[in-house]
Design a protein that fits this description.
single chain; 12 helices; DprA; DrpA_SLOG; Rossmann fold; alpha/beta; 327 residues; DNA-processing protein DprA
Length: 327
Amino acid sequence: MGDEREARMLLATVSEPADIITGVLVDHVGVDETARLITSDGALPDEIDAAEGALWRRRLASRLIPGELDRLHSEMDRHGIGMLVPGETEWPVELRRLGVSAPLALWFRGDPTRLRSPLPSRVSVVGSRAATTYGTLIAGELASDLVGDGRLIISGGAYGIDEAAHRAANATKPGHTIPVLAGGLDRPHPPALQETFERIVDHGGLLVSELPPGSAPSRWRLLQRGRLIAALSAATVVVEAGARSGALNIAGQAHALGRPVGVVPGPLTSPASAGNHSLIREGIGTLVTNAKDVAALIDPPDPFAVAPAFAYDPLRQRPATAPGRTR
């Protein structure tokens, strides 16, 4: 194909996010050769099982549409959408931690330099779509305090906790939030949050997706979005999550990457916080209640900076013991 950007655009159009075979091929033979292998009879590398490779070829070849790249360029121009690929200035190097599951490209609307902010300045605030009043209140307060301390809020652009975090961050410090979406940026999902997304972009924020224009969200794409949120953040905070919430997937991704996970405790009687309590119980997350606690996750205090409160003092007198009594 001869143009890495075009090859990555093609592969992102026909591959699903985190397609392992596509990732392995890109890693071993490059994006240009990977794109060519979809329709060629050339041998695949030994790292690819022959049967799986044949299925990969059939699956991706069936999605090739003549003129698709021209359509993508037209939609990108029409909606003001840009594209980033590895090696470009604004490409977030933290995505390398995802290995062969790293995105092929990122589509964006807004200010891509937000992705160049230092990793410790980025925090993801996530949780359930079916959030309670308690959850949305805490998410808003936490996001507001974090951006007030110079952080940038990353979340998934969904209803509930995500929406509360994005709105509060953008209201406190306009543009200091990044929704990571699971579909094309030409039709952001959910549609009801279109106004919120536009306000974020207008105020200097950023919308990001690894899916090209025209792509619709799916369960797989929603789940895989979690790895991007986790990788782009120095720490992930789960505000409110039920036992089956997708936010637990993001927490698991962050934990697997070695990134700290903060967990806001909820009422013991609330099923909406059952996932939070399981994260704490299983040792995946650390209990946090405010922005100061989150800052300590990102930059832990020196445990020897302050003397222990109950340091041993050899001059301290022992309390007297009553006659005939022993300790």
